[in-house]
Amino acid sequence: MIDIGAGSLMVGLFVLFLILRVPVAFALGLSALAAMWKLGFGLDLVGDLLTAGIGKFSLLAIPFFILAGNLMGRLGIADRMIRFFRVLVGGLPGGMGLVGTVVCLFWGAVSGSGPASVAAIGPMIIRSMEDDGYTRAFAAGLVCTGAALSIVIPPSIGLVIYGVLAETSIADLFIAAIIPGLVCGALMLVALPFGRGNPSSTRDLVPDPYPGLSYGAALWRSFLDSFWGLMTPVVILGGIYSGIFTPTEAAIVASVYALAVGGLFYRTLNLSSLYNCLVDSAAGSAVVMLVVAYAGLFGWVVTVDDLIGQYSGTLLGLSDNQWVILAVIMLVLLIAGMFMDAVTIMFICLPIFLPVMRELQWDPIWFGVLVMVNLAIGLITPPVGINLYVAANITRLPLERVARGALPFLLTSIIGLLVIAAFPGLTRVMLP
């Protein structure tokens, strides 16, 4: 009879639970519990491991960044920013496609969560892009891809988790990810010519947010209307980069700032909107933190059964060429992204990949940004690309059509991944 190790049993059960459509958090927990039973550990250890997994100060950034993003969306701050960028670049070639790309990148510096970004800014951008002659599926694909970059462009929930796991400066990760995020966003513009249906017949349908005003006057008016929202990334990233507060404290500052803008300047904050934001943020945070908690059990078994040593040793033994090993790691992450969410992938794969990174003396900052770009691609790859599901719900289109609309952007994202892998210096441009 074949004796399967506890770690291998856990991985096999996890895959089986995923096939049976068990929620990811419970698939992690149940498979880890089975492995712990096989190793001879009692359930009295589970509570300590769960609390240790989520009892990290840095992880407080996750619920507060989620709350800040929800507040920005519900309090009208997103609408004002979209109007500003529509006036600023809407008349350039690409029209609302260019506006949508810029807004998605800018919103990534507010939200930190891909699905939340799709839900917050997707309806308005998709509707405006349709008016400008783009197909609905293509517009949804653009929003899915641009919103996916929310886990690359700081402040990023993914970078917070990577920083905790890799014991790397989260502030440095935030700064290092700015240029690579902009590169991926710029590459999205290459796909815009492929999304137009019949622009000549619909161009005039795009509403003018400030009718009767000249370009300069409309731009100034829209800037004044959206000023406090546009200052959000400046406050967050400026405070982190100048050392005024840490990335974790920045998440709290972002939430308080959003409340102040909505309540004092835009006067859109009321008890109903605040309640809805708190409920949505609590639900979103609970999903993420439940995965984090059960992933702690999973990671503990990985360590105790020495799966890290086994799998990392196997990776290092594949080739003497570090680029081959990097290609294998990136391929594993791309495939995993087709079936699992980014948080789960990080907690399962990074304990195996990080020792390889250290052995090959790769820059942990560069590797972290590269992992985030890879995981962003996973948000738009079926069958479990969560951004696609959110966009399909918004547009009432079948998931298959939204996925086809995202295909050109999937190709540009892969090109961006290759560029960042080939030029590690892109992550060091803005670091001191």
TrEMBL record:
Protein localization: Cell inner membrane
InterPro entries assigned: DctM, TRAP_DctM
One GO location term (cellular component): plasma membrane
Subunit and partners: The complex comprises the extracytoplasmic solute receptor protein and the two transmembrane proteins.
Entry function: Part of the tripartite ATP-independent periplasmic (TRAP) transport system.
Family of this protein: Belongs to the TRAP transporter large permease family.
TM region positions: 12-37, 49-69, 81-99, 138-161, 173-194, 227-244, 250-269, 281-303, 323-353, 365-386, 406-426
Origin superkingdom: Bacteria
Protein's name according to its UniProt entry: TRAP transporter large permease protein
Keyword Transport: yes
Keywords per UniProt: Cell inner membrane, Cell membrane, Membrane, Transmembrane, Transmembrane helix, Transport
Residue intervals of the TRAP C4-dicarboxylate transport system permease DctM subunit domain: 12-426
Main location: membrane
Keyword flag Repeat: no
GO MF terms held by the record: transmembrane transporter activity
Mode of membrane association: Multi-pass membrane protein
